[in-house]
């Protein structure tokens, strides 16, 4: 599921964001395939993962997505998008993924990730091209 503020984006891109949300739910429940299928099959796709992996190229990303999904079970997530920007054949989103997940067989627990996704329209269809996610650090400006 995706929640956004008012978005001035093409309908085909908004539909693709819905597909990303559904695929992320599958990932957090242990199935990486729907999310992997949304990525461009190119050497320049990139991942800066929340658990440390930095990967380039779809084969490397797919291996990492399988590892990530193997850690999850019984999870669900909602995208909270603060920024959705589309210009021609390029787009990006910035926001959070918030959910309740079971990691490595542990208890169900809340999880929050800060996430930036990059997208590209290739041959008329949107694809994911970049993901940078991390666990939000404590704001050090606060006492």
Automatic annotation (TrEMBL):
<dbReference type="InterPro" id="IPR037401">
    <property type="entry name" value="SnoaL-like"/>
</dbReference>
<protein>
    <recommendedName>
        <fullName>SnoaL-like domain-containing protein</fullName>
    </recommendedName>
</protein>
<dbReference type="InterPro" id="IPR032710">
    <property type="entry name" value="NTF2-like_dom_sf"/>
</dbReference>
<dbReference type="Pfam" id="PF13474">
    <property type="entry name" value="SnoaL_3"/>
</dbReference>
<feature type="domain" description="SnoaL-like">
    <location>
        <begin position="24"/>
        <end position="133"/>
    </location>
</feature>
